[in-house]
């Protein structure tokens, strides 16, 4: 077959196309597809799946009803995708909780502790969220996204067995609907790379047991009518050792060696597979999906002659951000690829799991801003347009290309994208704006200013989100109460939380954050340059969904954002109240961020806004300010060679945000949700006077790691785990503290829970903090 695009020139690679007549491509099959996405969203356009699952958990609906709700969402998503023109539709990316957990079920790799649960659905949810006496699987971030997957455990008792009911069922369901279905399964290398070994087992050592299972699976999918199967291997975009690259080759030689199997598409995303692409190209797989939005280049493809007889599924439409694609630029890349590949299909760069369903649910968005955006449904349409242009020439989609060009031009020209005052202020900054006095000097001044006891006790910021808070927020949204009434109710909550903390005898108080729906959205709503959506929900984990704000233009703080609340809290007590802000890196990580300038530049703008807020808090009499950066680790690039650059700008942004205050004002930060190993140096470089970290579950190892890099500032290793409703005994907290004191001199040690308390009940919080204060007193 021959693919040509009339009306376009390659974006690079000179004139190799279309002038060379030998540019005829041969495909290993004539059955390849041209337009697809790597995965479909699953929570439902209105979070229908969340509601159904939570109803099931609460016993309001039964398993059959939950299955009906799931099916209805799948049917809508599959038929919607096919009707929109995809000629291969991914199936199996639906999940009741998480795709890694689904893969653990597929491979018979659920932990032994749930094996006793007879009902498969109960067993599944027990692994996901725990059950009476059963710890759930750990949860961690999916590459550099804010999606959290469940970490499978591979131990001596893991005996892999194939249980393909889910994927076979979804394939059958799709085929009955007449869908050109392409089953999607996480590949063996990624499954093992993301699993955790227990009791001395190294997951990678178990690869040879998995390969036969995958071969069996492929044969069964072929029997069930699958022409193509997508094996997701995003782990290949990380740094791989030579041995790992060899195992890519060996694994896919083995999987592609059988004759009775569907055609194999190996999908990589979130970066370039680098040497793993060479290994994949050398095997007999029929296709690779590559992410051209975040890293893979046309020249990498051109450099691999073996790709000349494979299908390359080009991720040209960003699957994880919400900007409209510059279709002509994407087409230019597509054209450049044509000469080097066997066949070309257009796709999103990743699954659509990471973006909201459709702009159709956002009638109130500013129409100009809206014209710059593409959510899930709009991305599918973009894929179709690109595929049509490649298949039939640009004339066939001239109007669509013109609209895309007009949107790009409107965005480039929009005045809201540039604020000259902010740009001038940033241009005028020098190194002095990211540096504070020597840490020892600050410590001495702060000791004088704050007069805190040894081992000061404090909390991370939020207190339980009570029914009163939720009711007030709903009433305000519904227009049933005025803003003034709402604010009164929030002040009452603050007064309550202050009184509670005084009665417990905590040393540094917080206002409890009742007014914050979310630690990023709260600031996004008040800063220029951000827009919010009504229904732009994205799955964060399980049934938890978030609505990331859209950071589209220069960020400007037009007024103080937190000062009234914090000073109100301070007015109620003689104890110091800590101001509470979210840091620039976390604000970026949990937003959809503009892609027309480097993240580092955007981070500085956000940092400047936060800096102004810290200065205003200080001027209003606040003596400690905490700037949370729980997402510092999340944005760490997947490839080591890019990490230092990121850490430099991330640390720089934090320091810009926090070095505008006096030396006697104490800056705190809070980090959580991650393995800190790789960023330990950066934590020290933040130069916060006090850093609180999640440590209760990782048993204080973080203290040794910090010591190893010469960290000499204040540290509050979480002394108990707030992720569980269990109230820790005072003796237990005391033991944790004594362990901490072994590693850190008492003068630098703070006593706090390991994270915010917003998800906990009031009674547990009160009991736990009482024990924490008493433990601190006895150790003092
Ligand atoms: N200050 C925030 C809170 O306490 C921090 C949240 C977080 O660590 N993610 O809720
Ligand atoms: Zn936290």
TrEMBL record:
Residues noted as binding Zn(2+) 1 in the record, renumbered to the chain: 670, 672, 694, 755
InterPro entries membership: Cbl-indep_Met_Synth_N, Cobalamin-indep_Met_synthase, Met_Synth_C/arc, UROD/MetE-like_sf
Signal peptide: none
Domain Cobalamin-independent methionine synthase MetE N-terminal: 35-333
Residue ranges of every copy of the Cobalamin-independent methionine synthase MetE C-terminal/archaeal domain listed in the record: 455-777
Chain sites annotated for binding Zn(2+): 670, 672, 694, 755
Keyword S-adenosyl-L-methionine part of the UniProt annotation: no
Pfam families: Meth_synt_1 (PF08267), Meth_synt_2 (PF01717)
GO biological process entries: methionine biosynthetic process; methylation
Positions of 5-methyltetrahydropteroyltri-L-glutamate binding: 47-50, 141, 146, 544-545, 590, 634
Binding site for L-methionine: 460-462, 513, 628
Active site: 723
Uppermost EC category: transferase
Cofactor (UniProt): Zn(2+)
Function per UniProt: Catalyzes the transfer of a methyl group from 5-methyltetrahydrofolate to homocysteine resulting in methionine formation.
Name the UniProt record assigns to this protein: 5-methyltetrahydropteroyltriglutamate--homocysteine methyltransferase
Species of provenance: Nocardia vermiculata
Gene: metE
């Amino acid at each position: 077959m021959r693919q040509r695009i009339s009306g376009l020139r390659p974006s690079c690679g000179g004139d190799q196309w279309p002038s060379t007549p030998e540019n005829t491509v041969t495909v290993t099959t004539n059955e390849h597809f041209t337009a697809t996405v790597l995965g479909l969203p699953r929570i439902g356009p209105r979070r229908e799946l969340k509601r159904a699952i939570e109803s099931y958990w609460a016993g309001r609906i039964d398993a059959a009803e939950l299955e009906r709700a799931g099916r209805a969402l799948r049917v809508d998503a599959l038929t919607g995708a096919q009707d929109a023109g995809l000629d291969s539709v991914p199936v199996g990316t639906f999940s009741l909780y998480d795709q890694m957990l689904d893969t653990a079920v597929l491979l018979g790799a659920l932990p032994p502790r749930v094996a006793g649960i007879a009902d498969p659905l109960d067993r599944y949810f027990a692994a996901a969220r725990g059950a009476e006496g059963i710890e759930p699987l750990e949860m961690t971030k999916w590459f550099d996204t804010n999606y959290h997957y469940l970490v499978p455990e591979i131990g001596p008792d893991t005996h892999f067995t194939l249980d393909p009911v889910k994927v076979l069922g979804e394939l059958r369901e799709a085929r009955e609907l007449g869908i050109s279905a392409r089953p999607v399964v996480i590949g063996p290398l990624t499954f093992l790379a993301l699993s955790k070994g227990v009791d001395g087992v190294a997951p990678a050592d178990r690869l040879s047991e998995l390969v036969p299972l995958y071969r069996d699976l492929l044969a069964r999918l072929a029997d069930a009518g699958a022409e193509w199967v997508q094996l997701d291997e995003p782990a290949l975009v990380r740094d791989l050792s030579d041995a790992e690259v060899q195992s890519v080759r060996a694994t896919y030689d083995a999987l592609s060696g059988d004759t009775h199997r569907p055609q194999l598409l190996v999908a990589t995303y979130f970066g370039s597979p680098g040497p793993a692409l060479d290994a994949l190209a050398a095997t007999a797989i029929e296709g690779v999906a590559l992410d051209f939005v975040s890293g893979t280049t046309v020249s990498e493809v051109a450099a691999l002659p073996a790709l000349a007889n494979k299908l390359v599924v080009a991720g040209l439409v960003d699957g994880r951000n919400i900007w409209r694609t510059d279709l002509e630029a994407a087409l230019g890349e597509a054209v450049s690829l044509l000469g080097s590949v066997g066949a070309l299909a257009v796709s999103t760069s990743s699954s659509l799991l990471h973006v909201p369903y459709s702009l159709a649910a956002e009638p109130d968005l500013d129409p100009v801003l809206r014209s710059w955006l593409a959510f899930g449904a709009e991305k599918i349409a973009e894929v179709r347009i690109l595929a049509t242009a490649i298949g039939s020439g640009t004339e066939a989609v001239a109007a669509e290309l013109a609209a895309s060009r007009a949107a790009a031009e409107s965005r480039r020209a929009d005045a809201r994208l540039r604020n000259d005052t902010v740009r001038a202020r940033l241009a005028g900054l020098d190194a002095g704006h990211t540096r504070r006095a020597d840490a020892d000097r600050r410590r001495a001044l702060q000791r004088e200013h704050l007069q805190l006891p040894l081992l000061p006790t404090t909390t991370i910021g939020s207190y339980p989100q009570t029914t009163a808070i939720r009711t007030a927020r709903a009433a305000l949204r519904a227009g049933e109460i005025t803003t003034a009434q709402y604010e009164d109710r929030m002040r009452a909550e603050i007064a309550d939380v202050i009184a509670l903390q005084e009665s417990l005898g905590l040393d540094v108080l917080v206002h409890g954050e009742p007014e914050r729906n979310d630690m990023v959205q709260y600031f996004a709503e008040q800063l220029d340059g951000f827009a919010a959506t009504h229904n732009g929900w994205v799955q964060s984990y399980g049934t938890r969904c978030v609505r990331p704000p859209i950071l589209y233009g220069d960020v400007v703080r037009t007024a103080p954002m937190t000062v009234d609340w914090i000073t109100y809290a301070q007015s109620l007590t003689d104890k110091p109240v800590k101001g509470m802000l979210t840091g620039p890196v976390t604000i970026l990580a949990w937003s959809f961020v503009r892609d027309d300038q480097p993240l580092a530049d955007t981070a500085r703008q956000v940092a400047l806004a936060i800096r102004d807020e810290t200065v205003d808090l200080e001027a209003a009499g606040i003596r400690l300010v905490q700037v949370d950066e729980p997402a510092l680790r999340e944005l760490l690039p997947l490839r080591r060679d890019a990490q230092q650059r990121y850490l430099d700008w991330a640390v720089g942004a934090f320091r810009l945000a926090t070095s505008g205050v006096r030396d006697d004002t104490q800056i705190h930060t809070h980090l959580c949700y991650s393995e800190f190993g790789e960023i330990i140096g950066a934590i020290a470089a933040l130069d916060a006077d006090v850093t609180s970290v999640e440590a209760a579950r990782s048993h204080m190892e973080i203290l040794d790691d910090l010591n190893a890099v010469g960290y000499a500032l204040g540290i509050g290793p979480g002394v108990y785990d707030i992720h569980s409703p269990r109230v820790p005994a005072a003796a237990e907290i005391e033991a944790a503290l004594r362990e901490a004191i072994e590693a850190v001199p008492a003068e630098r040690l703070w006593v706090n829970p390991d994270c915010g308390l917003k998800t906990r009940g009031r009674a547990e919080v009160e009991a736990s903090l009482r024990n924490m204060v008493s433990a601190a007193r006895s150790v003092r």
